[in-house]
Q: What sequence folds into this?
C-alpha cells in the first residue's frame, strides 16, 4: 500500500505542524464511524498492527494490516482535503474548517469518503470556531499547570 497526499493536504499538514508542538501522525482505518478516514493526530501511539504506508508533508501515514491487504504493492490512495465540511472529529485539521479524505489514484473519493455519505453538508466555519483562535490571557489552575495529556 502506498499513500500520498495532494498539495492541499500537504498545506494543511504543514500548517498544523507549525501550530502544534508535539509529533504529528496521520492514521487511516482507526475511526469508529469513518472507518477508513484519515486522522491527523498529535502525539499518537500507533497500534501494533499498523505500519507506515507513506507520508504527507513529512508526517508519517500509518495503516492497519486489514487495510494494507486491500492495496497490494504500489496500489494506493491519496489523502486530500474537503473544505467547509463540518464533521465532529478529533482530527486536527477540523480546526481549520477542512476534513482529510481519501481519494483513489484517479482522484475519485474512496467509497464511504464522499462528504454526502458522512451526512455532511457545505457549511462556512467561522474563525471563532477554531480551537486555535486567540483567547487572551488564560489562567490555568495550579493542579493542571504541569499536567501533560496525550
A:
Amino acid at each position: 500500500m502506498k499513500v500520498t497526499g495532494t498539495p492541499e493536504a500537504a498545506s494543511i499538514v504543514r500548517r498544523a505542524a507549525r501550530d502544534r508542538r508535539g509529533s504529528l501522525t496521520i492514521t487511516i482505518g482507526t475511526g469508529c464511524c469513518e472507518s477508513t478516514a484519515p486522522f491527523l493526530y498529535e502525539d499518537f501511539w500507533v497500534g501494533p498492527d499498523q505500519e507506515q504506508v507513506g507520508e504527507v508533508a513529512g508526517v508519517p501515514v500509518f495503516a492497519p494490516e486489514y487495510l494494507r491487504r486491500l492495496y497490494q504493492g504500489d496500489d494506493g490512495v491519496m489523502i486530500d482535503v474537503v473544505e467547509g465540511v463540518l464533521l465532529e472529529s478529533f482530527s486536527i485539521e477540523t480546526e481549520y474548517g477542512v476534513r482529510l479524505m481519501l481519494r483513489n489514484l484517479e482522484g475519485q473519493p474512496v467509497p464511504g469518503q464522499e462528504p454526502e455519505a458522512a451526512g455532511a453538508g457545505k457549511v462556512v466555519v467561522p474563525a471563532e470556531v477554531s480551537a486555535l483562535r486567540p483567547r487572551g490571557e488564560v489562567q490555568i489552575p495550579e493542579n493542571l499547570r504541569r499536567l501533560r495529556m496525550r
Confidence is low (pLDDT under 50) at residues 117-133. The CA atoms of residues 139 and 145 lie 9 Å apart. The first helix runs from residue 7 to 19. The first strand starts at residue 2 and ends at 5.
